[in-house]
Write a structure and sequence with these properties.
EC 3.1.3.15, 11 helices, TIM Barrel, 15% strand, histidinol-phosphatase activity, alpha/beta
């Protein structure tokens, strides 16, 4: 039974849809073994809010309250459905500036989160995944795809060293709005690739897990996050891989997992690492060494 460690809902995320409980119910219906609830951590400056949040009159204070409500609801669901699915309560992190290191430490301590997804959504303070317009603004600031990609992986490097997230979210999100040929060229540049390899080595060194994120296909990309070359690099270095649908609402649960199966086969991935809870409720790391033979893939097509 597969897994996902990266999810959102419209109840607690302004660019999501539907209630968190409906997400959980759909994960149960689709026979997920473990499902991670990981709403975005709050941001702490009005200048860091997204346009959709400003339109909804959000403030850093309202986002903090919303996150608190999320954790309370997620813990309720974790208890309510414990006999049907293992739910982990975490958060997808931001690292817009170095001061976020302190904020993340406080967040983890206050809420005793089961795990965190370490993601990077900004480069040079500009969000790169909200819209193509903002992506182009960021690209123009750096002057070339290669320079943008270098900066992205350097900021990711800072986040990884500071946070050491259990799950590394969409490692190469910087591809999201890039022209395919330009992105491929930038990724292959020795200065960029050396940064990717450095980051991969660091995560492996502290025992982190890399998600294979299927939402990339919703954005029209050829590969999942990370791309095939990076997945193969991680395998060569004996790194750990897991699965995530990056759900943004109930109907996104297991999104593109049919393509994900093919992606695992193409990249030669047959072992998936996963976080779960032991009998004492402690988070533990385990492995599924027969992921490709799992009956889940057949059941997914029938739900």
């Amino acid at each position: 039974m597969p897994y996902s460690y990266h999810s959102h809902s419209g109840q607690f995320c302004h660019h999501g849809y539907g209630d968190l409980e409906a997400v959980v119910q759909n994960a149960i219906a689709k026979q997920f073994k473990v499902y991670g609830l990981s709403e975005h951590m709050p941001r702490f400056d009005m200048n860091e809010l997204y346009p959709e949040e400003l339109e909804a009159n959000c403030t850093p204070e309202t986002l903090a309250t919303l996150f608190n409500d999320f954790v309370n609801e997620a813990r309720r669901l974790q208890s309510k459905y414990k006999d049907q699915i293992v739910l982990l309560v975490g958060s997808e992190l931001e690292f817009i500036q170095p001061s976020y290191a302190t904020m993340i430490t406080r967040l983890r301590q206050r809420y005793a989160l089961d795990y965190v997804v370490g993601s990077l959504h900004h480069v040079g303070g500009i969000p790169i995944d909200f819209s193509n317009e903002l992506y182009q603004k960021c690209l123009n600031r750096f002057g070339s795809y290669t320079k943008l990609f270098e900066a992205y992986f350097d900021e990711q490097w800072q986040m990884l060293q500071t946070v050491k997230p259990e799950v590394v979210g969409h490692l190469d999100l910087v591809r999201i709005f890039a022209e395919p040929e330009a992105a491929a060229s930038a990724m292959a540049d020795p200065l960029v690739w050396s940064r990717i390899e450095r980051n991969v080595d660091y995560v492996i060194g502290y025992g982190g897990i890399f998600e294979i994120n299927s939402r990339a296909w919703k954005k029209g990309l050829r590969d999942a996050y990370p791309n095939q070359a990076i997945v193969q690099l991680i395998q060569q270095k004996h790194g750990r891989l897991t699965l995530s649908d990056d759900c943004h609402g109930p109907q996104d649960v297991g999104m593109f997992y049919d393509k994900l199966l093919t992606y695992l086969q193409t990249t030669g991935v047959d072992t998936i690492s996963y976080l779960t809870l032991d009998d004492q409720g402690k988070v533990v790391l385990r492995e599924n060494k027969s992921i490709l033979q799992d009956s889940f893939w057949t059941s997914l097509s029938n739900t």
